[in-house]
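Hi P.,

Sorry for the delay on this. The queue was packed all week, but I finally got your sequence through. Input first:
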Amino acid sequence: MFSLNKTLLALGVTLTLAALSAHAADPTAKQPLDQGIESVDKNLEKNSDNKGLKNASERLQTNQDRMGKKRARKDERIEKVENAERAEKEERHEKVERHEKVRPGR
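Then the structure:
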């Protein structure tokens, strides 16, 4: 019974990780700020001479690009850490046993 629970837990974790990695690798997946960009673009079609909407559109796109680059750098760092080979630490030598000093009168 206990090994069955472990197996089911391992299977669940594996499937969850696979789903997350597939979602992250999908370029058509929704990105942050997509809804805002769509909304501003729709309003820009109606009011193409509005400077505020043009500015908002540029800022949203710039922010989305910046966030994408930041996410890519984070993924690279995580990948480096996961793939890094760790040097084995030397075992510590046993400490020399020290005797307590005996003070006269105590």
